[in-house]
Structure formats: C-alpha cells, structure tokens
Amino acid sequence: MTPSFTPSPQQKLWIERWQRFSAAVVRYFHIYAGWLVGISWKRFVLLSLALLIGVNVLKNLPPFTWRISEQVEDHGQGSAAHRKAMLEIEAKKAAEYARKVAEQAQKDGKAEGGQDGVHYEVKIDERGVRIQPVRAASAASAASAVGADGEPLADDAPSIAIDFPKSARPEDIRAAIDQAKEQLNQLKHEAEEVKEARQAAAEAQAALREAVEELKDAQNRKRVTIVHAGDSLVDIAILWILASAVIKAMYKGRIQAEVKAAQAAENAESEALKRQVIEARMAAMQAQVEPHFLFNTLASIDHLIEVDPPRASQMQKNLIALLRASMPTMREANANGGVRDLGRELAVIRPYLEILKMRMEERLQTEIDVPEGLLSAEFPPMMIQGLVENAIKHGLEPKAEGGTLKVKAEIVHGKLCVTVADTGLGFGRAATSGTGVGLANIRERLQLLHGSKASVTVTENQPSGTVVTITVPYRSRNDEGAAA
After folding, report:
1. Using CA atoms, how far apart are residues 270 and 263, in angstroms rounded to an integer?
2. Residue 245, φ and ψ in degrees, nearest 5
3. What is the secondary structure of 63-87 as a DSSP string?
4. Which residue from 452, 431, 432, 449 is spatially nearest to 441, judged by alpha carbons?
5. Per the count of CB atoms within 10 A, which of 35, 123, 150, 195 is most buried?
6. Which residues of the chain form CATH 3.30.565.10?
7. How do residues 392-403 score in pLDDT, each as one tens digit?
C-alpha cells in the first residue's frame, strides 16, 4: 500500500501561493488575450511599431546602459614588469646617445646654447675683409661683447678678419676675398654640423620623454567598457509582438469555437424542446380530430338504431373495423414523429366512407384514385379523414341532392399531392360552415412537420364544391427500408 503524501504547513503555504499566482496569471492572460481580440489588426500593428520605437529609445538611457572602468595589463608585450624594463632600457639608450652628441659638439667648439640666434655678416672696407658672428635681436640684450663696428658679437662664435696692406694690389685683394669665401664656407659647414647635432639631441630628448610617458601609461592604463543591457529589450519586444500576434489569431478562433459550440448546444436544446412541443401539440390536435369523428359516428348509429337497426348494426361493424385499423396506426405515427404511409391512411378512409355512405345513402358517391406505387409514401395521419369529414359535413350533407367525393393522390414536381374534392355547396356557403379550425390545425401540423416544404390550398370545384390539396415532400417507406 502506497503511503499518502501529507505536506507540511510550510509546503501548504507555498502550494497555496503557487495556486494563487497561477490563477492570477491565467486571469490576466485571458484579460490580455480578450483585449487583443477586441482590437483591430491595424491598431495592433500601430501599437507594435510604437513599442519598437520606444524600446530603441530606452535602450540607450542610463538604466539600461552604463560604463565599467578596469585596470588592464598589456599582454601583447608580456607582463607589466617586462614592459617597464624594456622602456627603461630604451630611455637609457636615448639618454646615452644625447650625451655623446653633446660631448662631440662641445669638443668641436659648438656646444649647445652658444649658437642660438647667431648669423654671420661679411664687410669689406679699406681696412680689409671682416666676417663676424652677430646675435639675433632677441639675444642681443644679453650679450656683452661688441665688435669693432659697434655690432653685438656672439659670446664664443668664431670670427674672421683679413687686413689689406696699405700697398695692396687688386690681385692681392681678390686673393684675400677668395680666402675669406673659403673660410666662410667652412664656417657654414661647421654651423650645419652644429644644427644637426642639436636636432639629434632634441630627438633623443623627445624619445626619452615619450618613453617616460609610455612607461607612465603602462603603469596607469585603464580600460572603459560600455555595457548595453538595453539591447535585449529589442529582442524581448519582438518576441512579445510575435507571441501577441499568435495569441490574437488563436484566441479569436477559440472564442469563435466556444461561441459556435454554445450556439450548437443551444440549437440542440431548442430543437429538442421544439420537438417535444411539436409532439405535444400534435397529440392535442389529434385528440381534437378523433373525438369529433367518433361522436358524429356514434350519434349516427344511435339514430339508426331507432329507425333501421340492421343498418345500425352494419355501421357499428364498420366503426369497429375503422377503429381496429386506425388505433395501431395512430400509435405508430406518434412513435415515428407524426407520419405514416398513405396506404394506412386509406385503410382508415375506406371504412370511414362506408359509414358515411350508410348515413347518406344515394346522396353520396365516393371515388378513391390512388396508384399502387404511392401507397408506401409517407403522409401525416388523420389529415385526409379530417378533409373528408369537412367536405361531407359542410359541403355534401347540407346539399339536398348530395354529390360526389373524390380522393386522389399523384406526384407533381417531385412532391406528393393528395386532393379531396367534393361537388357540394362550396367553401363557406353552407349554413353549417365551421370556423376553419380543422384547416388551421392541418396547416399548423404541416408547418411543424415540414416547414415551408408543405402547403394546403383551397380552391373552388367546377361546377360546384371545393377542392382541398395537401402537398408534402415525397418520401417512400420502401426506400427507407431498403436503405436500412
């Protein structure tokens, strides 16, 4: 025997919470699904576009986007210590190179700082040729030496002086000028070497500064990461829209199916109630027709017993035969939904007409024209008998000479037509004309059984009388038995 599981109080509490949560989720789901079904597809598309636009705006706002700063190591050149050592070595090399360049420049008499802003001027006068260095105006204020002509001289820049002898010849002067040009070119070459040395020293200093800065960056390098958590909002919004579209399509079909099922159940219930009402009303209408005929027949027998007992006895026998033929068929008709075959109806009509002929004697002639093939056709019970009774009571019996009664059945346009025609006074012309309850009952019964497919028509007969035709859908009981 399997032991039953008994949850603890804590488990019961969680179970109750879960049940409440599930019920709330289901309730809100139905509310949301009902709202989706209630809006049009056009409005659904517009709301979806608005949702996507709003999500794309929100994903870049601070709640969904933030920055993360972190210290990182340069793994491309090894560890931070290795990178630092490499930078120190490069800085030392740059410093050593700068020192050597400076020493070489000082050795050649062109140390850094002595030639800043210096240029050479060449003057030729009666004394000779003078090539002197002249400091720029920005540095002239700091100079203390002054040349022979009053110009400020550079502190340690070389100068050239070529004196002309008093008895100098042009050739000697030209030679002195050439000598001055050579010395000037030599000075220019030395100035260019000094300039190159300065540039090399400046490059070494710049390399040293860059090495120091890179070393500092390597020690304090940080990485800033921007986290975009809002990117997932777009995917969530797209999934939400797709799920809503599926819910809108499927939930609408479910609601329609539920409505159809409810309508079908309601229609079935209505049909069942309608069927019960039909059967009850048909039973009530048959109860109105059957006693009416029986009372009239019994009254006739009672009358004949006094005036003609043998004929009363014959009428009584015919009544017994009529009841023996009609009672079982009435029960069968009630069990089968209010229809039976035309042959059973004629089996009741024949003894019924015999009774009436005994009452009216030579004043009544009858004729039954029904093909053998139509005896199996379905036909509502007691209708022909009611028409025959009305034709005799209100048409032929009030007429002094009587007349003829004819019952005919035929197929017209695929429907069964049963006609009861008499040559009496005519419809509504006799003093004994009724209220039309019999025809109203027939019309109502046909409407309940066949709807608009059945009809009753009343026309005048020639030269006199009335013709009543009942038209119903043709259906043979032989066909039904073969199908079964």
Report:
1. 10
2. -65, -40
3. GGEEEEEEE---TTSS-HHHHHHHH
4. 449
5. 123
6. 278-483
7. 888 888 888 889
